[in-house]
Batch of 3 targets.
Target 1
Amino acid sequence: MKNKKPLAENQMFVAVLASVISIAVGLLFGYILLLVLNPAKAGIGMTAMLTTGFSSLDQFGKVLYQSAPLMLCGLSVGFAFKTGMFNIGATGQYTIGAFCALLGAIAFQLPWWACLILSLIGGAIWGIFPGLFKALFNVNEVITSIMFNWIGMFLVNLLLANMPIMLASAWGASNSDRTANLAQANPGAIIPKGGLDRLFGNSSWINISVFIAMLVAVICWFILEKTTFGFELKACGYNKEAAKYVGINANRNIVSSMIIAGALSGLGGGLYYLAGTIQYVLEKKTLAMGFNGIPVALLANSNPIGTIFSSLFISYIQVGGSAMQPNFSSESTDIIIAVIIYLAAFALLMKGVITKVLKGKGSTTQNADSAAEAEKEEKA
Amino acid sequence: MAEDYVIEMLHITKEFPGIKANDDITLQLKRGEIHALLGENGAGKSTLMSVLFGLYQAEQGVIKKDGKEVAIKDPNDANRLGIGMVHQHFKLVECFTVLDNIILGVEDTKHGFLQKDEARKKVMALSEKYGLRVDPDAMVSDISVGMQQRVEILKMLYRDNEILIFDEPTAVLTPQEIDELMEIMRGFKKEGKSILFITHKLSEIMAVADRCSVLRKGKYTGTVNIADTSREELSRMMVGRDVEFEVKKKAVQTGEVILSVKDMVVASKVHDNNAVRGVSFEVRAGEIVCIAGIEGNGQTELVYGLTGLEPLKSGSITLCGQDITNASIRERSRLGMSHIPEDRHKHGLVLDYTLEQNMVLQRYREPAFQNHGVIKFGEVRKYAEGLIERFDVRSGQGPQTIARSMSGGNQQKAIIAREIDKDPQLLIAVQPTRGLDVGAIEYIHSQLIAERDKGRAVLLISLELDEVRSLSDRILVIYEGQIVGDFDSVGMQELGLYMAGAKRKNKKDGKEGKAS
């Protein structure tokens, strides 16, 4: 009995089982919604959602490609969350990061890696503001970062509208509502595919960005779990008063963590727009990618390694969702995706239920165990 | 055989995930008796009372009122059966008047309007009858803790409760107030009301209770008549072994001045006046100096000022000859200041960190535990295991236990281990035994004495008079932010008068300080 732990106490097992059950329930609800919206096509729609990601190497490449910016936005939200901050400003930092990367690529003709560094810096600068306001004036970071989402988006639109060289029209295309196609403006700024395109059957999507994102996730994990810096950040997040009591400068940590969070989102923007497959379109709404970082981080319980998997999952569902058109409108696929993600976030709740069920079965042996332990204590 | 039991709790079992809080517990309350319920922290007293008060449902066992089985599903059921409870942390609406608080929930209304005249008469009558002095029109936020407790008691009486539960009622009171409370409880007994009295304090049980039931680790150890028992027997029943009551310590041998405070002024967060108003004192190596006082007289702010959690408005602090008035918390810590904080959950621990992480919370930056910013978790583990062994910190999974899941006593031991192992010149201990049971208290006291005997300076801030008297070499009494007394030794009643602000003496005078 000693060398084999009861199943209920195997945290890993319970956590994985809880996630699987939650996702399954989410998919079931999604299916019910499909039946309500369009009964005739529900089966086809569900199949599309579930299989598209694996249906071809090209589509799988797309899953990986889309997961990279999601992963970074998730890391951004999760990192700030570990320090006790709710970074709802990921989308603003992401937008600024994207702009800085494109500025380097098009206006200054820099290579891709230099552009990525620029995106990192741009995002970091956008993260400083909510951090500073919180540290100096105790302004709630949620309010500041929401405002900076809008400021960032309109600032980028304003700058692009006044920088003709950035727009597609300056590089041989006719439209001036979006940035230049990198293939024409600066092919050297496109993130290399590293031979992956051949591996993925000439997928137009795949590049090395997903591996960059994974590497960043591992670095985040290392910082948070292994370093004194991460130790201080988490201490501030869990209990700011206790951190202060042991002499940790909580305000400096708030600013540092927001800078890092901003840099992560910014890098996400750089990775997405330097892929060469998409151009930044001047629009009057904030980009969804940054907000999608929130469920990614929540699903992963803010764990950087978990973020890798949760972003792959959400990316997979999104690719599947886009394949459901035209049978279902893009709005209804968004609703279904939201339902699935929402229920997947019930994993924590499910964890408690599973533990209870497993405990119920094994309760007799456990009581015997604890009784024996209590006896030992008495003797000692 | 046919005893007149007003409440019987028979074979109560209540389980929480992973722990049996109550395991087959039987408690029988006679009509018109004061029945004490004694047990260490985590022995299951509060759980048992919560079952009786309808906050929890027991898995097994029955509750009988007047010999008839009853179901208590929520506090309303309990109220209907005449069961009332004064909680350890009062449940009062701060911005309501005393009268409003008493009638809240059972207000008389006429066409939807409050009718308070009848209520006022009833409250005043009750107040008169039992000697529970209150001002019905005062705001609860403005009245003393003692009066707040009287309001809680009046709440029970107003609802015509016959069975009164007191959950650690004396923890927040001065000696005089405790005596008053005991008198009030005796009054209730005369009226035929039955009282359940939960406490850690053996002296109070001996003074006021008729019988006492003892719980240990969720199990029932027995019920004894107070007349036939002794403190020693009760503590043995509670802890399972003999407990030392008298703190043994060597004669004091003071050395040089370690801490020197001059004219310290600290602002208050709750009102416009300063919380600490020009306090000066010294603590020497090898002595325990105790600051005694009733809660809320500036002790908290005094400690915040000393440790750097709050800035001083004026005055200066010197530690080991260095001026630390404006030093950072980390700097003070480096110069040899350790601080066992008043609130272990707010300041002392990161509850979601593991025990080992909490144990290196003061030291993780030292080269022994980190290399270029990377924490050496192997070293941390070894260090934590050493501390756990030396300070006998008990927990479910050793160094990897999440601090939140540990018992209060062991959490406190972990903090004390961490702070003492820093090898401080000055140890500031703020209510280090608050809410702990006799076993843990005994241990913590011995650790403080050991530090003193090593020649360290110890500054103890405590509300517990027994603790103040048995540990301190010197007593400073604080009242409304000022030191009003400075004694080498002093009588209990005398000390109470100083704490209540009825007497004051600023210059040290051995003769006058002696007990009268």
Target 2
Amino acid sequence: MRRMMAAFVALALLASPAVHAVQPDEIMSDPAKETRARDLSRELRCMVCQNQSIDDSDAPLARDLRLLVRERIAAGDSNSQVLDFLVARYGEFVLLKPRFERQTMLLWLLGPLLLTGGGLALWLQIRRRARSGADLPAPPLTPDEEARLAALMSDETKRS
Amino acid sequence: MIAESGHYALVLALGLALIQSIVPLIGARLRDDALMNVARSTALAQLLFVGASFVALVMLHVNSDFSVANVYENSHSMKPLLYKITGVWGNHEGSMLLWVSILALFGGLVAAFGNNLPLSLRAHVLAVQAWIASAFYLFILVTSNPFLRIASPPIEGRDLNPVLQDIGLAVHPPMLYLGYVGFSISFSFAIAALMEGRIDAAWARWVRPWTLVAWIFLTLGIAMGSYWAYYELGWGGWWFWDPVENASLMPWLAGTALLHSALVMEKRNALKVWTILLSILTFSLSLLGTFLVRSGVITSVHAFATDPTRGVFILLILCLFIGGSLSLFAGRATSLKQGGLFAPISREGALVLNNLLLTVACAVVLFGTLYPLAMEMLADFKMSVGAPFYNLTFAPLFTLLLLAVPFGPMLAWKRGDLLGVTQRLLAAGVAGLVVVAIVWAWTRGGSALAPLAIGLGVFVIAGAVTDLVERTGLVRLPFATVLHRTRGLPRSAWGSALAHAGLGVALIGIVCETTWNSEYIATMKQSDVAHVAGYDVKLDGLFQRQGPNYREMIAEFNVSRDGEALSVMTPSKRSFTTRGSSTTEAALLTRGASQLYISLGDANAEGAIAVRIYHKPLVLLIWWGPVLMAFGGVLSLSDRRLRVGAPKPARAKQRLQPAE
């Protein structure tokens, strides 16, 4: 069920006969460039799929994008130039890792903010409570409790 | 007849649920035992009727009764029997029926085995369960009735989506739902506690086994789904940070936090308010997951807008339950007394840290899943949040968490000695560092991150072992004593050690698979040989075969290593005539924990075929880890102290155990 929606979408888009992600004929002859192309592909979204990178997707559009990425790399673009090119063409939607911008700032900062904020709040609370607790002297044990404690302790030594 | 009976049974279940929603509460208000006991019988009767309704749908599918729309749309007379049955929950209506069936099952279990609960608590819990049940029965009956008939029945069905015709799908959704829905019990307990205004350590003891059961199923369900995606979708990926996956991961993260905070509450009577809040949040996230998956809102906001009936209905349920429970919480939480003081460095402190990290991780996933939706609706800004984002934000949080894991169980309650624990964990730390050095030397030139992560995994496993060694007194005590102590060690101690070790195991698998995965993509002709990670894979030939409801093209590969023949692998491509779609059946060769993975692409006119071969080192550890965690959960569940529930005060003395 979890992948069901994705599978449905993928299948719906799949023009039969089925094609596969990264076809043998797409691969660049220079292994270093091919590696770069693969790394970039993993960060780019296949826009007609549900949350799939163009590296994973079977859709024809993903293939076009993979070829486009390789074309730009072959033309001598740097990684960020390739990404800029694609964003200029298709918008921020194409990036699976959103850029740090005004609109995405909250998304990126949420984790660190929550962690430091939460950590700080907890630390202060625990310290305050520990201190207020330390001020109160522990009430002495009643004779009944003393007896139970003694029974427990002897039980404990027998056990180990 | 069967369809009508199933439909009628569901309506009756709704009626029973409505009674169960109200009568026990009146009973609790009037302190009338008979009225409160109504909850018990209605819960059991509800289970009976929903069960009957579910069986009716299964029978319709098995009989291939195509006069029922749900069967027509998702079944085929030639489909193997197993997939006729599993096809019941391979679609929206059927899966919602499974959802309420499991909800009724949990309600029935509380009714049947909750004899040691105070009567009014049980009445409240079952009433809250019935609220949830009523809402979802209504949802099914109004928007997603699986028993609808077609006026002029077709002769043949449209078949189930081929990707779903797989044994993995037979197991995955029921497991996942047992997890999702299982958290409804802790939710109901939390609401009951807020309504009664009474909560104590005994409450935590009642809640913990139920939470644990749900957590075990959710863990296995997620792992199962991940393995299914790995072998069925044909490109060897096992986690995609897809919103649908996130929907199951969020309750898991919150549920894991809940397990740990309930522990503090049970042992030390602290963190009460937080535990209640987590119970509410965990089930709310389960509901949110159901909403995300069932409303189609993630596929696109527009798809949601064009057919909003179901989506809006679930959204209403969502708002009602989350909003209602949180308001109740806000109103009542302050009246709950906090107890159990502890120093920052203590077992409690460690568990609080665990909760902080898990909650933040959960919030990050929640935000990542919903942020793009919000931006599109509010700011008309289309953006994506995918795997690279989550990897970047999730990894640091889990690194911190894993670093802390070995320390937690070794710290004392109330006030711990960090320095002492560090000394005791020295051996584990050294083991981790040695592994880092070995892996780094072995894979010279690679990134330093992978060896470090593997070292962290080893540290977590070694830490769990150290914990057990310390508790049993292995090495430092005479053998007979060790044996005695091993036998006396509570099973929950074994359970938590195993579960923690499972984290380390999974981490090692994840790192190895992502870092040293080798891949070979090419078009192969007959007798071509591919060399992948030391294996020689030779294509022997292609042939066709007819299956029950598909045709398949099989490629036969001979796999050998250093001239020694190992195995024959036969990946295939199936085309399903009814839906005109096809699936890739990958072939897997397991060697230890590593796997060789072959999947097929297209054949061309000259008889050559596109092939992808992967070698995935230690990939199976990714799933062995969760299995180990779940096994730890089962061990913990079998612990006497959890099984017997909360001890009655008079007998408490006999049950006192040495503090862990």
Target 3
Amino acid sequence: METFDNEMRLMFQAKSCNEALARMTVAAFLTPLNPTLEELADTKTAVSEAVTNAIIHGYGDKEGTVELWCARKGSEVFFHIKDTGSGIADIEAAMEPMYTTKPEMERSGMGFSFMEAFTDELVVESAVGEGTVVKMKKRIG
Amino acid sequence: MQAAEYELQKDVLVIRLKADLDHHTAVTVRESADALLTRSRAKHILFDFTGVDFMDSSGIGVIMGRYRQVIFQGGRVGVMGVGSNVDRILKISGLYKIVERYETAEEAFTRPSEECLTGSN
């Protein structure tokens, strides 16, 4: 099993008020690495997008739990955002810029584009009816 | 915490954001802004980000949505008090193509020609 310098796991209800909680947690987790303001903003945005997706698309009106896992090894930080909601049928389409299944909610379809732009690595694993895991990696410094 | 405060100045609905503009606050800002747009004579919208330096793609949806609300009546949308993080999101998303950025509220109301939010000068 891979060992990390530090690791944490946060589980919270799929409620929009917890989006800020997830961002603040990630920011606090990064603090020992002395990230620049830009690195901090990038990470917060990427995590915010993934958590928002889990709440809106993963669970929608249903109740559920979102899991945020963070780990650090050297200057590399790993973030996994997991839901056990509806899953994504076509990941490739979902990751297209401006693609959204919820235009009536004024979703801009920029979520995955931001995750991609603001991190160094993005992997999305999903199964319909089982849920989605978004895995991101970012180098700090 | 309230997501935003709303004020009508001339024909401009000023939305003073008080919290990060994410999906959580986007929902209430959208509802409040649209209710005010319907029952006031506001034609333009000015988003004031002073003191708020976080916005994600949900914020883009809110600004684009309000833009669609006012554009057909000849209205415009502006932003002010924009910090570096919000600025980056606005740049990357291409929103500055449809939204004017002002440094101060005064500038939004007095900048000459078609760039002025009220368009009255």
